[in-house]
C-alpha cells in the first residue's frame, strides 16, 4: 500500500459514514412530516398537483390539490389545511 492510499482510507471511511447518517436523518425527518393540502401560496407548493408534477407550480393561493410538508400534527391546526387532497 502506498502512503497516499493509507492517508485517503480514513477520509473515505468518514465520508461514507457521513453519507449514511445523512440518509438516515432524512428518513427520520420525512417520517415526522405530513403533507398539508390547501394552504400553500401560488407558486410555493412542495410537489405535484393533479395538474402538474413539479414543486412551485400551484396556480393560485390555497389550491386544494397543492401541498406543503409540515411537521406531523400541524396541518390539523391550520385553517383550511387538510391531510387529503381535494
Can you tell me the number of structural domains? 2
**Proportion of residues in helical segments:** 25-40%
Basic shape: elongated
How many strands? Answer: 2
User: Pairing-aware structural class of the strands and helices?
Assistant: alpha+beta
Largest sheet: 2 strands, antiparallel
Instruction: Bin the strand percentage.
Output: 5-15%
Determine the mean pLDDT.
76
Distance between the termini: 62 Å
State the gist of this model:
The protein is an alpha+beta fold. It is built from 1 helix and 2 strands, in the order αββ.
Structure notes:
- It is a single chain.
- The protein is built from 1 helix and 2 strands; from the N terminus they run αββ.
- It has 86 residues and is an alpha+beta fold.
- It has 2 domains: 1-31; 34-86, no CATH class.
- It has a two-stranded antiparallel ribbon.
- The chain is elongated, with a radius of gyration of 20 Å.
- The protein starts with a helix and ends in a 15-residue tail after the last strand.
- 16% of the residues are buried.
Amino acid at each position: 500500500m502506498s502512503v497516499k492510499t493509507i492517508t485517503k482510507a480514513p477520509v473515505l471511511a468518514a465520508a461514507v459514514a457521513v453519507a449514511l447518517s445523512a440518509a438516515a436523518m432524512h428518513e427520520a425527518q420525512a417520517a415526522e412530516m405530513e403533507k398539508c393540502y390547501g394552504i400553500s401560496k401560488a407558486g410555493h407548493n412542495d410537489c405535484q398537483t393533479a395538474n402538474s408534477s413539479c414543486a412551485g407550480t400551484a396556480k393560485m393561493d390555497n389550491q386544494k390539490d397543492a401541498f406543503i410538508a409540515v411537521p406531523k400534527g400541524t396541518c390539523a391546526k391550520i385553517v383550511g389545511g387538510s391531510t387529503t387532497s381535494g
